[in-house]
Amino acid sequence: MDKAKCILFTVFIAIVVFCHSGDAIRCYTCEQSPVVCRTNVTCTHEEDVCLQIRFLHLRTYSCWKSSRCIWKEVADEFHADSFRFLCCYKDLCNKSPSFLAASATAFSITAVTVLWMVYQ
């Protein structure tokens, strides 16, 4: 396989891994969990982001609507005033930092492969 084909193949794999298909997003869903959530669902088409809310030592994971990813909307829905939250746009992105580390690892492997092929 020549260098150009290898590069195209690697780019194709990166696109498949990092791009969203347009289907409904999948999110973790747990209410006030003290541990990492492992339950996930396919969200409705109206719910287009994943949400994670942190209350001290508890976290709530849910499907959410991007237009409601503002502090006041989250506070009103969950009747809270002391929390942090995250809205994200990829499947199962509302888990925990270990998932983000896995995504960064996959990206790093792809980048190193491309660089290796370019400089060979």
UniProtKB/TrEMBL annotation:
Residues 25-108 form the UPAR/Ly6 domain. The chain crosses the membrane at residues 99-119. It is a lipid-anchor; GPI-anchor. It holds the Pfam family CD59. Residues 1-24 form the signal peptide. Interacts with T-cell surface antigen CD2. This is CD59 glycoprotein. It comes from Gekko japonicus (Schlegel's Japanese gecko).
